[in-house]
Specification:
The structure is a single chain. The chain is an alpha+beta fold. The chain contains 28 helices and 29 strands. The strands form six sheets. The chain has a seven-stranded mixed β-sheet, sandwiched between helices. A six-stranded antiparallel β-sheet has the order 9-8-10-16-11-14, with no helix packed on it. Helix 24 links the parallel strand 25 and strand 26. The longest helix is centred in the last third of the chain and has 36 residues.
Length: 815
C-alpha cells in the first residue's frame, strides 16, 4: 500500500473523548491505516492509501463522527479569464488540488471562492494550480491602484482603448471595401486596395487584438480552449484568405477579420461597463468606511488612521462625521443615519449604552464611543465578506449550463470543421438553399465559389458561438441581487437560497423575539396563599440567576416594587419547563404545571386562573415553595410592528405561515390570531424544534424559517431556507442563508421578493443564452449569416445578459 500522511485541522473537540471519537471515525474508513488526534493542537494525523480513500472522504469521516474539519475559505482574484470556458478550466485546476474541498469561480467578479484545508493546501499551492491552468492569481491587496482607481474602472478604460484603436484601424478597411464595391477599378488598383485591406486588417489583429490571440494561445498551450480560441481561429482564417485569394479561387475575407475583431472588442467594452455596474455594490460598501478616527487620550484629541484603532479605544465623533468603527456610546446623545446598514431611511436616536455601527453617520450631537470591533471584525467588513461569498456561490439551476460550457468550445470547433467539410462535399445542394433565400436575405451571395462559401460558413460558426452568455447569466444577476440586498439590510449568504425561496410553501416564525418584541413584562401576580408581594419576591429571588427574558421581566417587576430579594444557594434550569432554586425560605419552583407535577405538587387550584390568563395571550408560570403551590405569575410579550402586515403579504403571495414556540398552546394561539398566522406548533422543547421543521417539510414541502439566528441555529440549518433576524451589530450573520439586519419583519417580505426577482432574471438570462446558441449556430452552419453579422450577434448576446441582470435594480422589493 502506498501510504500517504496528512494533517487535518479538527473543530468542535473539547476533551480526550472527542479526540477518540474522531480517531474511530477515521480508522473505520477503508484505506486508512492509522489516525492519531492531538487534542492540544486540534489536528488529526492520518496515514492512508490515496488509491482507496481521498481527502474529501477523510473530511466526511470527521463530519460523520460529529465534528468538522475546520476548512478555510479564501477569495482569489483571477487574471486572464475571458469566458465561461476559462471559468471551468480554473475550477477544474483548483478542485484537482489536494486539500481543496470545493472551488467556485465567478466570471463576472473574476474571483475564485476556494474551500480548502490549510494544513494540506497553501495559498502558494492554489496560485500554482491556477498558473498551471494558464491563468494567474492577482495581488491579494485591495483592487485599487495608487491613483485610487478600482480595477473594474481600469479594465473598462483598457477595453475602451482597445476598442477605439480597433475602429480607427478598421475605418480605412471599411472605406476601401465601399470603394471596392462602388468604383470600376483596374486589376492593379484592385490588387493595391486588397493589399491595403490586408495590411490594415493585420494591424487590427496584432495591435488591439493581441490580448485575444495571447489568451487563445495561453489556453491552447495549457490543454483547454476558451472563447478567444474561436475568435482567434475565425479572424486568423479570415485574414489568411486575403493572401490566399491571390493564388486560389476564394474571396478575400481579410477586411471581415478586422471588422470581426473590432466588433468583438466593442462587445468586450460594453460588457466591461455592464459588469462594472453589476459589481458596484461591493465598491459602494468599500467606500462607505471612514478613513480616519479622532482618538481621545489623556484629555487630548489625536487624528489617527482607521487601521490604528484598537478595541477599547475611546473615540470622538463630531456631528456630520462617519462613525469610524463599531462601538458603544459612553457620552452624548444624537441621531444616527443607519441607512447604509439597515436600509432604514429615518435616523435612529442613540444615547449612552446604545450600540453604533461603523460607517454610519452621526447627524446631530457629538458622541464619545468605545470601540468594540475593529478591522475585519466590524459589521461592515462582515457584510462585505458575505456579499463577496454570495457572489461566489452557485445556484442549482446553473449546473446544466456549467456542464455545457465545459465542452462548448471543443464542440464548436468540431461543428466548424464539420461545416467546412459539408460545404466542400455537398456545396451544390447547400447552394440551392442560398439561392432560394437570397431574395429575402440580401447579404447572402450564392454566386461565390464553393471554397469561399465553405470558409464563410465555418468562420460564422466560430465567431457566433457564445459561451460567455452562459457563463455570465447567473453570476451577474446574483451580483446585482446580493448587492441590492446589502443596500436594503438583506444579507444573502448562499445563492442556492434564492432558488429555494421560489419553492417555499411555508414560512415558520419563532415567536419570542421574532414575531414579538422579546421583551415581556409582568401583567399579573395572583396569590393562592399569602400575599402577591411575597409571591413575586420569592419568584424573583429564584429567577435572579436566569438570563431568560421572562425571568428578567419577573425580576424587573420586583425591583420596580422595591422588594428585597433573597440569594439562591442552588440554581437549576430545567429545559423547556422552568427553574428550580434553593433559597433560605426553602426550595422554589417557577415554571410550567408539568414542572410542579413532576415534583409531586398538586396544581389543581391554579388550573382555572391559568386557563383564563392563557386565553388572553399571557404566558403563565406557576410558583411553588417546597411542596405547595403559592400562586401564578403572568407575562405578556407585544407583537412586533408590521407582524400582521408581513403575514398578510406572505399570504397574498401564496405562502402559508406557521409559528413555532415552546410557549403554551393557548398563549401561542392568541398571538397567532393577532398576527394572522395559519398554523401553530406550541409547547415545543428547544431540542425538538429541528424535528418539527422536518415534520413540516414532509407535510408541506419546502420550508423557510425565521428566527434570531442564535438560539434557533439548528432549526434554521434544518429549514430549506434559514432567515436570521436581528438588530444592529448583534446578529449572527453566519447562522442562516439570509440575514435581515433590521428587526423589522417587513424585511421577510422584501427578502422573498428580492429572491424571486433575482431568480426570475437568472432564468431569463439562461433561457436567452441557450436560445441564442441553439438558433444562431444552425443558421451559421447553413451559410445564412455573414461572419460580420455573426460577430455582432455574439457580442449582443453577452451584452443582453449583463444588461438584463442590471435591470433587476428597477424591481420593487419593498413590502
Amino acid at each position: 500500500m502506498a501510504t500517504k500522511i496528512v494533517e487535518i485541522p479538527i473543530a468542535g473537540m473539547t476533551c480526550a473523548s472527542c479526540a477518540r471519537s474522531v480517531e474511530r471515525g477515521l480508522q473505520h474508513l477503508n484505506g486508512v491505516s492509522s489516525a492519531n488526534v492531538n487534542i492540544a493542537t486540534e489536528r488529526a494525523t492520518v496515514a492512508f492509501d490515496p488509491a482507496q480513500v481521498d481527502i474529501s472522504a477523510l473530511v466526511q469521516g470527521v463530519r460523520d463522527a460529529g465534528y468538522d474539519a475546520a476548512p478555510q475559505r479564501v477569495l482569489l482574484p483571477i487574471g486572464g479569464m475571458t469566458c465561461a470556458a476559462c471559468v471551468r478550466s480554473v475550477e477544474r485546476a483548483l478542485k484537482r488540488t489536494e486539500g481543496v474541498l470545493d472551488a467556485s469561480v465567478n466570471l463576472a467578479t473574476e474571483r475564485a471562492s476556494v474551500l480548502y484545508l490549510p494544513t494540506i493546501a497553501t495559498l502558494d499551492v492554489l496560485a500554482k494550480a491556477v498558473a498551471d491552468a494558464g491563468y494567474q492569481v492577482l495581488d491579494q491587496q485591495e483592487a485599487v491602484d495608487e491613483a485610487g482607481q478600482d480595477q473594474d474602472e481600469l479594465k473598462r478604460l483598457a477595453a475602451q482603448r482597445r476598442m477605439m484603436t480597433a475602429w480607427i484601424l478598421t475605418a480605412p478597411v471599411i472605406i476601401i471595401m465601399i470603394l471596392h464595391m462602388t468604383l470600376h477599378l483596374t486589376d492593379m488598383m484592385m490588387m493595391a486596395f486588397d493589399l491595403a485591406v490586408i495590411a490594415c486588417a493585420l494591424a487590427v489583429l496584432v495591435w488591439p487584438g493581441r490580448p485575444t490571440y495571447r489568451s487563445a494561445w495561453n489556453s491552447l498551450t495549457h490543454g483547454s480552449a476558451n472563447m478567444d480560441v474561436l475568435i482567434a481561429i475565425g479572424t486568423g482564417v479570415s485574414w489568411l484568405s486575403g493572401p490566399l485569394s491571390f493564388a486560389a479561387p476564394i474571396s478575400s475575407y481579410a477586411g471581415v477579420a478586422a471588422m470581426i475583431m473590432a466588433i468583438h472588442l466593442t462587445g468586450r467594452y460594453i460588457e466591461a461597463q455592464a459588469k462594472g455596474r453589476a459589481s458596484q455594490a461591493i465598491r459602494k460598501l468599500l467606500q462607505l468606511g471612514a478613513k480616519t478616527a479622532t482618538l481621545l487620550l489623556d484629555g487630548q484629541e489625536y487624528e489617527i488612521k482607521l487601521s490604528q484603532v484598537k478595541v477599547g479605544d475611546r473615540l470622538l465623533v463630531r456631528p456630520g462625521a462617519k462613525i469610524p468603527t463599531d462601538g458603544i456610546i459612553e457620552v452624548g446623545e444624537s441621531s444616527v443615519d443607519e441607512s447604509m446598514a439597515t436600509g432604514e431611511s429615518l435616523p435612529i436616536n442613540k444615547r449612552p449604552g446604545d450600540e453604533v455601527i461603523g460607517a454610519t453617520v452621526n447627524q446631530a450631537g457629538a458622541l464619545q464611543i468605545r470601540a468594540t470591533r475593529v478591522g475585519a471584525d466590524t459589521f461592515l467588513a462582515q457584510v462585505i465578506r458575505l456579499v463577496e461569498q454570495a457572489q461566489g456561490t452557485r445556484v442549482p439551476i446553473q449546473e446544466f449550463a456549467d456542464r455545457v460550457t465545459g465542452i462548448f468550445v471543443p464542440v464548436i470547433l468540431g461543428i466548424a470543421g464539420a461545416t467546412l467539410i459539408a460545404w466542400l462535399a455537398f456545396g451544390s445542394s447547400l447552394r440551392a438553399l442560398l439561392t432560394t433565400v437570397q431574395p429575402a436575405l440580401p447579404w447572402v451571395d450564392a454566386s461565390l465559389s464553393p471554397v469561399t462559401l465553405a470558409l464563410a460558413a465555418a468562420i460564422a460558426v466560430l465567431v457566433i458561438a457564445c459561451p460567455c452568455a452562459l457563463g455570465l447569466a447567473t453570476p451577474t444577476a446574483l451580483m446585482v441581487g446580493s448587492g441590492m440586498g446589502a443596500e436594503n439590510g438583506i444579507l444573502i449568504r448562499d445563492g442556492a437560497a434564492i432558488q429555494a425561496m421560489r419553492s417555499v410553501k411555508v414560512i415558520v416564525f419563532d415567536k419570542t423575539g421574532t414575531l414579538t418584541l422579546g421583551k415581556p413584562r409582568l401583567t399579573d401576580a395572583l396569590a393562592l396563599t399569602g400575599s402577591e408581594a411575597e409571591l413575586l419576591r420569592l419568584a424573583a429571588s429564584a429567577e435572579q440567576s436566569s438570563e431568560h427574558p421572562i425571568a428578567q421581566a419577573v425580576v424587573q417587576a420586583a425591583r420596580e416594587r422595591k422588594l428585597t430579594l433573597s440569594e439562591a444557594s442552588v440554581f437549576e434550569a430545567v429545559g423547556g419547563q422552568g427553574i428550580r432554586a434553593k433559597l433560605p425560605e426553602g426550595e422554589v419552583l417557577v415554571g410550567s404545571l408539568r414542572l410542579l407535577e413532576a415534583a409531586g405538587i398538586d396544581t389543581a387550584a391554579a388550573n382555572a386562573e391559568i386557563s383564563r390568563l392563557e386565553s388572553a395571550a399571557r404566558t403563565t408560570m406557576a410558583v411553588a415553595l417546597d411542596d405547595r403551590i403559592l400562586g401564578v405569575l403572568a407575562v405578556a410579550d407585544t407583537l412586533k410592528e408590521h407582524a400582521a402586515e408581513t403575514v398578510s403579504a406572505l399570504r397574498d403571495m401564496g405562502i402559508r405561515t406557521a409559528m413555532l414556540t415552546g410557549d403554551n398552546r393557548r398563549t401561542a394561539e392568541a398571538i397567532a390570531r393577532e398576527a394572522g398566522i395559519d398554523m401553530v406548533v406550541a409547547e415545543v422543547l428547544p431540542e425538538l424544534k429541528v424535528a418539527e421543521i422536518k415534520r413540516l417539510q414532509q407535510e408541506a414541502g419546502v420550508v423557510a424559517m425565521v428566527g434570531d439566528g442564535i438560539n434557533d441555529a439548528p432549526a434554521l440549518a434544518q429549514a430549506d431556507v434559514g432567515i436570521a433576524i436581528g438588530t444592529g451589530t448583534d446578529i449572527a450573520i453566519e447562522a442562516a442563508d439570509i440575514t435581515l439586519v433590521r428587526g423589522d419583519l417587513s424585511g421577510v417580505v422584501s427578502a422573498v421578493k428580492l429572491s424571486l426577482a433575482t431568480f426570475r432574471k437568472i432564468k431569463q438570462n439562461l433561457f436567452w443564452a441557450f436560445f441564442y446558441n441553439l438558433v444562431m449556430i444552425p443558421l451559421a452552419v447553413l451559410g445564412l449569416l455573414h461572419p460580420v453579422m455573426a460577430e455582432i450577434a455574439m457580442a449582443t448576446s453577452s451584452i443582453t445578459v449583463v444588461t438584463n441582470a442590471n435591470l433587476l435594480r428597477r424591481s420593487n422589493i419593498k413590502p
